[in-house]
Amino acid sequence: MRKIAVLTSGGDAPGMNAAIRAVVRTAEYYKLEAVGVMRGYHGLVHNEFIRLHPRSVADVIQRGGTILKSARSNEFPTPEGQARAVENLNDAGVEGLVIIGGDGTFRGGMRLHEAGVSVVGVPATIDNDISCTDYSVGFDTTVNTVVDAITKIRDTATSHERIYVVEVMGRHSGHIALWAGLAGGAETVLVPEVEADLDEVCQRIESGYRLGKAHSIVVVAEGVGGNFQTARNMDESSAFHIGDYVKKKTGFETRVTVLGHIQRGGNPTAQDRIMASRLGAEAVELLEKGYSGHMVGMVHAKIKATPFDEALKQQKQVDLDFYRLSHILASQ
Ligand code: ATP
Fold it and tell me: Which of 15, 55, 96, 269 could form a disulfide with 4 if both were Cys (CB 3.0 to 4.6 A apart)?
């Protein structure tokens, strides 16, 4: 193998740059030429390749986002789009590809692998919803960002003795809500995996008040409450509905904060930089050893390669012990 390419795809995640840096510098170590593909699969279809040197990835380990940009591509999933992607890789003399992204990115990688391209994936998504790895790159930074926000909201919640409903990312999975809720000391955590009972939320708030609690924080994953959204405006965040419901039922002053895209940005934590560096380097080593169609993950703190199809057919479950523990600790 003489030349490899690297791309970032899907939603950006803090630590993607640290992974790119690791890929480029490990390639240099093994005397491989490295090229970057701009804008994920879009750039693969449209031939947006750039030469990457070890110096091209200087000063990026600490930066959020991705220097290679990311995009969603509707052309790539089509047979014509994939054929063009394979042709562009062959024309550029690329013999191995590292893809950094989430499950959609890995589905695309699977197609390329089936078309004969050597592909290895690095899991990077703030949602942490990829199986066969304990964590995805970006998750730890996002949890820390959310905990920081909850800590700030807590100050004003205490001062005004209010209920705060904080909506965090997680359309299909509650990993961010559960981790940040536990670390932030939230009174209630609502996740898509467990049906929300708003009367129970109100009871918990009222019993907290009787115990002398000055405030209550409810952390809600954005995917919670599909059912009650249908009764209202579909675009409206369920956090607002929950806020209204709690206010009407308990009479407490309630405020809603939707954290939104601040959860994607920011300098990656040490944990994300370390994981991105280890997984990025391992991806290149696996390509060198002749692997393809695999993702490289961290399982019980050890690096482990898993075939894409095996990883994609499993759903990463949230740890419901977190859910129970949050509520036990907050109800005393
Ligand atoms: P995140 O979880 O952060 O959203 P992701 O990698 O899952 O990241 P997607 O937008 O789902 O993000 O996927 C990224 C790109 O991968 C898509 O824009 C599309 O081009 C390609 N892709 C997704 N699914 C497939 C598929 N089944 N076949 C081929 N290509 C796919």
Answer: 96
For the record, the structure tokens of 31 come out as 């005397």
CA 284 to chain centre: 22
Q: What's the 76 CA to ligand 1 centre distance in angstroms?
A: 9
| Catalytic residue status for 127 | yes
Instruction: Convert the pLDDT of each residue in 55-72 to its tens digit.
Output: 999 999 999 999 999 999
Q: Which residues line ligand 1 (CB under 6 A)?
A: 9-11, 41, 72-73, 76-77, 101-105, 107-108, 111, 125, 127
Secondary structure (3-state) at 89: helix
**pTM score:** 0.95
d(CA 57, CA 255): 43
94 in the same domain as 46: yes
- In this structure, the answer to whether residues 109 and 7 fall within a common structural domain is yes
Q: What's the total number of domains in the chain?
A: 2
Strand order in the sheet with 163-168: 188-190, 216-221, 163-168, 254-258
Distance, in Å, from the CA atom of 303 to the CA atom of 109, rounded to the nearest integer, reads 20
Atom of ligand 1 nearest to the CA of 102: 6
Domain that holds residue 190: 142-264
294 shares a domain with 239: no
SS3 category, 307: strand
Q: Give CA–CA dist 91/203, Å, rounded.
A: 64
Which residue, among 178, 101, 124, 142, has the nearest Cα to 261 in the 3D structure? 142
Is residue 167 a part of any domain in this protein? yes
Q: Residues 197, 155: one domain?
A: yes
Residues 32 and 132 in one domain: yes
Please check whether residue 304 lies inside any domain of the structure.
Answer: yes
132 and 206 part of one domain: no
Instruction: Give the pLDDT confidence of 209-258 residue by residue, as tens digits.
Output: 999 987 899 999 999 976 565 455 555 568 999 999 999 999 999 999 99
